[in-house]
Fold each of these.
Amino acid sequence: MVKYMYRVYREELINDFRYIEYEDFQLERPSYMLIGLPDAGLVSVISAYHIIRKLDLMEVGGVDSHHLPPIAVIHKGIVRPPIRIFAKKNLLLLYSELLPPTPLIPSLINSILDYSVRKGVDYVLCMTGLPIPNRIEVEKLRSFYIPSNQRVAEFVKNAGIELELFENGYIVGPYALLIKEAIRRRMNALVILTESFMEFPDPEASAKNIEIFSALTGLKVDVKELIEEAEVIRIKAREHMKRIMPNLAQMRKEYEYAPPLYT
């Protein structure tokens, strides 16, 4: 028998967003939520998709709203919400190839943080790109971090990885809103930024972020395949990158990484 729709186990409305779960699941501790929304170089999306594949995460739910564009994801013949939720053991991952309209992002971020609290998440993690003008000339990419509090800063320090504190500059977009809201709520959140292209898909920056993710969480994700297939991924994701560029321009993404006049 062919299935045409997902089974709804639980559904709740958070800030006009419907969080749908297909089955009951509990996270092990310490628990992490990783958020993969389109951003510079599609670094977040490429990283999240690779992690889903390599850790064999199970699709456990999705997020939908009448405020989102009229889009449905069709996976194995079944209609899914545009924002998908995956989980396994102590990892919860929100994945979307759709970048919501800019006015909608604050409500979405707030709903995601509310949902993380309800699922007992210990750390909210975001991995994205940090556009640099000379990216094509850079072979060794630098990575930076922005913690929401001292506990998260210690969490990074104890992992013993090569990460620099992002001390001066701007970040723009959904992760900027998330880290500000996490600070306001006194939640544990971390934004990881790796130097990347702005308008071209950047699998190499994604691989660097995944290596940092593995060191932080202890969830080992092999990036060899991602690096070997970098050119193929770039070609496949090129059109998608073009589609989200107007949204990034609307958010004034070009301001990112420019140091402020006064610090």
Amino acid sequence: MTVTLTAEAQHRFDHYLQEVRLLLQGAPGIDAREVERDVREHVETELGGTESPITEEQLESVLRKLGSPEDGWTRARCRSGGVPSLASYLGEDWRLAYLCLGMTMLGVIFLLAGSVIALVFLGGGYLLARAAVSLADERGEKLGARRILVLTPIAVVVVPILIAILIGPLLPLAEGGYEEGWFSSLGIGAALGGRGR
């Protein structure tokens, strides 16, 4: 690198590159040395006009733009000076999203068949979906196109629970009102065909 780093900044940068190498180790079709070269070029481009030596804080601002090594970078974006994303190297992981939706679909099928095992699949789909959302947040990723596959299992569980919470307490009141003849006194009984009399 042509820019000079302080000892602390150099230590931080070496640690960052080590994380990159470990992450890409064994990844098929990816040359970790080329990725490391791209990262070095990106940092050098960002800090090229900065007065040397570069402090750890200055380096950290560039590394934050790049994201953690788990977030990664695309070679093209590094070269163009953009902020990168590892999905282009390793591909987005859709397995968890498909598993969430698959378990939920099985839960719905068993629910329509009247089987109690539906609760296991619906609960499992919900838990996996929550895990997928948490994992994406932890990695600083956006769900993107996977959003529908992950949020559907959550909605399938949460919406009926919310409806039950909101309407459930009103059902005993409605039944009590029907039995006491309140509906007929309000004219509702006539609208229901005189059933409240």
Amino acid sequence: MRRGAYLAAAQRAQRTIEQYDGAPSEQEALEIMIDCYRRLGLKDLQANVEKVYQANYHEASAQGMKRRSWWHIL
């Protein structure tokens, strides 16, 4: 996403969710998709992913989406 390739990043995040259902990185992939769709101005897709995020991670959405990545070492 640092290069501005938001569509590619959103597609990679979507494939991650599809291929690794239930993995710890699923929440982060949804966050990436929300951010990418917001930056691309795709409001309908952003709203759909936000609904999925809130349905599955409602405790995290109440605190905001910013959190440490699952792969960061303490």
